DNA sequence: ATAATTGTTTAGATGAACCTAAATTAGTAA
DNA sequence: TTACTAATTTAGGTTCATCTAAACAATTAT
């Protein structure tokens, strides 16, 4: 009785309400939603009424919306799918395409919990997507992982590259050249006082990265 | 001017018309389409009018439809996506899920030619999907590959397992056990007169499969 | 050839998701 | 407070994809 199928559009609304709720910590306004959905306020009002009827949001006229527990769970499932597909896309093809996000916007609506769970397994249970955003678990709970930049890590700490901040082709090409990518394991060997560059041990080899690079690479926890 | 975006529904109609055209070699009837789309004849008539206006089908009232070249190309692109995703699903997870086809039905509508081309590359340019159906190329042309069952191959011929006919869990489990899967390379060593079983060389090791198994495994060309 | 059957199309409605324009409410400034 | 502005909702329409029921065309059987 719980598992009402949601339309693609409804899923998108929930996802956006979730995001806005996180940002402003509270009620979400009609206009804010209209902006992000590329629709008009009137259309949003319509939809909020419908979502309210399905008990996915708490909606009081003129006062904005919040998600119900059920709505939040649905939103998190969509976000989970989106982020896992993002990992998949980057994994399969590198950061090459600007379009990754757009494609993930479509893939996030593929219905099959099993598929997404299997995807997660194949990808090695990544805690975050390539933007460093945490991936909700199969129960629809958002873990509070945080990204830590190599620049800020202690000497002797180990980790695995989980993503990059700067996604310009120039930077990505350089990373590729020096053999650093998503999943690369490393250990912080030393930090050079002089220029704040960082010495890494990557599978036995010493690799030195500049401060700029160390500011743009992150691991998790 | 050519690249009108099609709705998911329109894509499905084209795909189904293509399939029916292949089967009956000629005009496709309204009712046949209605059956496969799980809609009613009246809805099909409506849609055919719309597709006709977009010059994707040739439609004459009471006389059935055929695809135009443009419509055929669109249909083949959908089929290409569907079959590549099927390969992906089986690749990632084995035949485990009955639901593979349903999931591919959704994935086939993901818009991104680049993604599907990249997928094809990652999968190693498979000529057929796991059901042995050929995969149209990036230009929207259907190659005429045909499946050949191991039962019918000559001694000394080599090949690669491209799919299975029987997809019952029992059979798939057995294949798994004897180490045969999609992509497995083999050479036909001999055929045993007595029971028509087939001796294979699989990466240096002799494997014997029964007539029944050899009737259900195929390669291509 | 005519009648009966089957297949197909039209007419008129529906629901989802959107729109514009007008009305309403909430919040702010005089 | 009252008047004004900005945000929101309602009213009334549109398009897409569907439906049912009725009308119409084509095919088959007598």
Structure summarized in a few sentences:
2 copies of one chain form a homodimer. Chain A has 221 residues and is an alpha+beta fold. Chain A has helices at 8-24, 30-37, 41-53, 69-93, 100-107, 113-122, 169-177, 211-214, and strands at 57-59, 65-67, 147-149, 158-160, 163-164, 185-191, 198-202, 205-209, 217-220.
Describe the structure.
The structure is a homodimer. With about 220 residues, chain A is α+β, with helices and mostly antiparallel strands. Chain A contains eight helices and nine strands. Chain A has helices at about 10-25, 30-35, 40-55, 70-95, 100-105, 115-120, 170-175, 210-215; strands at about 55-60, 65, 145-150, 160, 165, 185-190, 200, 205-210, 215-220. In chain A, the strands form three sheets. Chain A has a four-stranded antiparallel sheet with strand order 4-6-7-8. Chain A has a three-stranded antiparallel sheet with strand order 3-9-5, with no helix packed on it. In chain A, helix 1 (about 10-25) packs across helix 4 (about 70-95) and helix 2 (about 30-35) crosses helix 3 (about 40-55). The mean pLDDT of chain A is about 90. Chains A and B meet through helix 4, helix 5 and helix 6 of A and helix 4, helix 5 and helix 6 of B. Chain A binds a DNA duplex (30 and 30 nucleotides) through helix 3.
């Amino acid at each position: 009785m719980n598992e009402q199928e949601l339309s693609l559009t409804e899923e998108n609304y929930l996802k956006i309400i979730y995001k806005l709720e996180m940002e402003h910590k509270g009620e979400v306004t009609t206009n804010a939603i209209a902006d992000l959905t590329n629709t008009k306020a009137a259309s949003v009002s319509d939809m909020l009424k419908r979502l309210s009827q399905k008990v996915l949001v708490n909606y009081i006229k003129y006062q904005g919306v919040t998600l119900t527990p059920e709505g939040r769970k649905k939103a998190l499932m969509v976000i989970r799918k989106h982020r896992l597909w993002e990992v998949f896309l980057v994994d399969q093809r590198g950061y090459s395409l600007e379009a990754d996000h757009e494609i993930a916007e479509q893939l996030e609506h593929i219905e099959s919990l099993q598929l997404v769970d299997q995807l997660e397994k194949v990808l090695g249970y990544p805690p975050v997507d390539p933007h460093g955003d945490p991936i909700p678990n199969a129960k629809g709970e958002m873990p509070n992982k945080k990204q830590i930049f190599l620049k800020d890590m202690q000497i002797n700490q180990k980790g695995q590259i989980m993503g990059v901040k700067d996604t310009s082709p120039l930077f990505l090409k350089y990373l590729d050249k020096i053999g650093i990518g998503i999943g690369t394991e490393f250990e912080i060997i030393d930090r050079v006082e002089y220029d704040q560059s960082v010495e890494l041990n990557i599978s036995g080899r010493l690799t030195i990265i500049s401060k700029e690079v160390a500011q743009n690479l992150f691991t998790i926890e």
